[in-house]
């Protein structure tokens, strides 16, 4: 976890720096001994300190032996799923909830090597029916219909 | 038969019980079932469930209508623990603390036991808080209403200080996550002056980042992404479930924990703005502190399930105290109930106990009946709830992602919440990979606004002097507890490390 800790520490310091700099754009209005920037500045400073401590901790750990368990393997399938999920959300906006949900579920099942047609079609249809009855009809939640 | 005298009024037990006919009991049962369903699904909140049944109650008489709403409320608070324990996805924010040990127990095949403990603890907390409501309502409301900005600030800080306890092995990463959560909580309008902060010109950002889509993303979506990593494993079920029942010895060891957590929950529930989530985390922290084996918390300890569940359900009765006695709602669902009371011709406040005493006593009895139904539904429904674990990951993970989109969108019919959920889910996945705890982020998002607004109000009250934080007894006590809660885990870690070093040197 040495390298990830150093990277996380750097990200955290950058984040605190961004928030801190942004507070300069807040008006310097004294609202009873504090102003809009008071509390975010406190948080940013504390965060930067903790980020620095994490970097030091990571640096000290780097001197120790690295075992295989320390290396994190990126699973490509997860990133593909994330990409499909993003496309699904865009699909909900433009194609509507029900159609995009059907396509998303079928795609996910194919990607996870589900081969039986009855599952490929049956599960998405049952899921959509459940959502339609419970959320659409019973709870009257208006779901996006896209261009349709 | 008269069993007690309260300010000149008598409670005729038989006449109240006789109003509980089959129809009324059926309404309470249906309300509990609806509440459990709502509460178990992330994104469908207790407040939403109460709002949705409110119009249905209009056509009913006052007692029936109010009991329908109350039973939905109680059921939804309990329902959050089901998905928290089974799939590490809290259905309600107050169940987030339950997920810490509840899901660990599920991983060990002890989901049955965890659900049993959560059900019994929830019902005990709920019933005890109703009993407290009945006997102590006027006195307890007086204390809670005296809570001003410094006390609320100290309570919020105490709630945040337990980040050290819930961060597991890396307290440093937990504190970082908490501070990031606090920074995110400061996005939106400044609570005192209304100035937009960190909005980057976006009207959506000006409204701030709601913690609910973040919670759905960090827990549900992140967990779904994480489970995709080994989606091709030969195991068709998530975890095997051993039908191991709770033993009497195990339950005996939890009784004190449950009673203490119920008391904490009832008191915190009475404080306006402080809900089940704060009570759950505070109770979890105290349970860990008082435990003989605190190192087992976070690894599947039954006390880690009992404490938050007893506390969050105890807040239901506690939240009713200021609502009924003073007309001040204790949390968001009771704010909706305030409207419901008025619609049904009941004016909340001291006069409610004078003018509608039979209605009030019927509501008290109905609350206890609702908790009994939760016990029945919970214990007999465990076999059904556990079926979720038998759904293959290839099916469950995409379904969870669909529910995440649905839940995030249904919150406010705004796609901004869906994008927040997505970003939180992606970040949450990496947080799981790099062992950064997600709970502190949620805790900070919930308590951050309370912390900042009351800190600044306190300074306004004291003309800028910090004396206000240590000259008020309740504030000072809470700040000391916060300090202890924050630093005790650090000190324990240092002592343990030094002990291990010494042991290695000696051997």
Explain what the structure shows.
The complex is a heterodimer of chains A (148) and B (507). Chain A is mostly helical and 148 residues long. Chain A contains five helices and no strands. In chain A, helix 1 packs antiparallel against helix 2 (38-62) and helix 3 (76-95) runs antiparallel to helix 4 (97-111). The N and C termini of chain A lie far apart (50 Å). Chain B has 23 helices and four strands. In chain B, strand 1 (2-6) and strand 2 (9-12) form a beta hairpin. In chain B, helix 4 runs antiparallel to helix 16 (332-343) and helix 11 (211-228) packs across helix 20. At the A-B interface, helix 1, helix 2, helix 3, helix 4 and helix 5 of A face helix 9, helix 11, helix 19, helix 20 and helix 21 of B. Chain A: It comes from Halalkalibacter oceani. Chain A: InterPro entries: DUF1468.
């Amino acid at each position: 976890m040495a390298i990830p800790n150093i990277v996380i520490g750097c990200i955290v310091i950058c984040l605190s720096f961004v928030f801190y700099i942004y507070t300069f754009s807040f008006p310097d209005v004294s609202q009873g001994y504090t102003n809009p920037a008071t509390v975010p500045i406190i948080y940013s400073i504390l965060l930067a300190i903790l980020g620095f401590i994490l970097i030091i901790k990571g640096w000290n750990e780097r001197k120790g032996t690295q075992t295989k368990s320390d290396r994190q393997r990126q699973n490509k399938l997860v990133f593909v799923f994330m990409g499909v999920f993003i496309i699904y959300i865009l699909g909900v906006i433009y194609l509507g909830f029900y159609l995009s949900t059907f396509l998303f579920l079928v795609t996910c099942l194919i990607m996870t090597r589900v081969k039986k047609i009855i599952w490929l079609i049956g599960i998405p249809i049952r899921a959509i029916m459940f959502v339609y009855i419970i959320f659409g009809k019973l709870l009257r939640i208006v779901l996006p219909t896209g261009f349709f | 038969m008269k069993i007690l005298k309260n300010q000149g009024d008598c409670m005729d037990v038989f006449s109240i019980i006789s109003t509980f006919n089959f129809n009324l009991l059926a309404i309470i049962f249906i309300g509990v079932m609806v509440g459990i369903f709502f509460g178990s699904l992330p994104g469908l909140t207790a407040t939403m469930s109460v709002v949705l049944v409110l119009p249905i109650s209009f056509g009913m008489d006052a007692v029936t209508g109010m009991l329908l709403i109350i039973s939905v409320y109680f059921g939804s608070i309990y329902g959050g623990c089901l998905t928290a324990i089974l799939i590490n996805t809290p259905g309600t924010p107050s169940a987030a603390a339950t997920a810490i040990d509840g899901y660990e127990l599920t991983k060990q095949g002890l989901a049955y036991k965890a659900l049993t403990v959560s059900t019994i603890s929830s019902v005990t907390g709920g019933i005890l808080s109703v009993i407290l409501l009945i006997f102590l309502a006027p006195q307890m409301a007086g204390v809670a209403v005296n809570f001003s900005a410094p006390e609320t600030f100290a309570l919020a800080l105490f709630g945040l200080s337990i980040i050290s306890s819930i961060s597991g092995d890396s307290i440093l990463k937990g504190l970082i996550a908490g501070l990031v959560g606090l920074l995110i909580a400061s996005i939106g309008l400044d609570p005192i002056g209304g100035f937009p902060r960190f909005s980057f010109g976006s009207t959506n950002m000006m409204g701030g980042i709601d913690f609910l889509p973040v919670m759905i993303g960090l827990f549900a979506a992140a967990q779904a992404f994480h489970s995709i990593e080994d989606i091709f494993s030969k195991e068709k079920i998530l975890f095997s479930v051993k039908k191991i029942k709770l033993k009497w010895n195990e339950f005996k060891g939890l009784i004190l924990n449950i009673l203490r957590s119920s008391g904490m929950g009832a008191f915190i529930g009475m404080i306006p703005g402080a809900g089940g989530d704060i009570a759950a985390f505070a109770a979890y922290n105290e349970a860990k502190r008082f435990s003989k084996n605190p190192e087992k918390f976070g690894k599947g300890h039954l006390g880690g399930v009992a404490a938050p569940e007893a506390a969050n359900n105890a807040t239901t009765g506690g939240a009713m105290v200021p609502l009924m006695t003073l007309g001040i709602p204790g949390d968001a669902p009771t704010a909706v109930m305030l409207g419901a009371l008025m619609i049904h011709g009941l004016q909340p406040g001291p006069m409610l106990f004078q003018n509608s005493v039979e209605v009030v006593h019927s509501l008290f009895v109905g609350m206890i009946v609702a908790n009994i139904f939760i016990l029945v539904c919970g214990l007999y429904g465990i076999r059904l709830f556990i079926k979720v674990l038998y759904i293959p990951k290839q099916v469950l993970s995409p379904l969870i992602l669909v529910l995440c989109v649905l839940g995030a969108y249904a919150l406010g019919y705004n796609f901004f919440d869906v994008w927040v959920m997505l970003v939180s889910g992606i970040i949450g996945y990496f947080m799981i990979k790099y062992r950064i705890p997600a709970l502190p982020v949620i805790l900070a998002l919930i308590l951050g606004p309370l912390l900042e607004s009351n800190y600044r109000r306190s300074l306004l009250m004291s003309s800028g002097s910090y004396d206000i934080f240590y000259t008020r007894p309740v504030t000072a006590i809470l700040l000391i507890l916060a300090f202890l809660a924050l630093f005790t885990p650090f000190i324990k870690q240092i002592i343990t490390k030094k002990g291990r070093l010494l042991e290695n040197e000696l051997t």
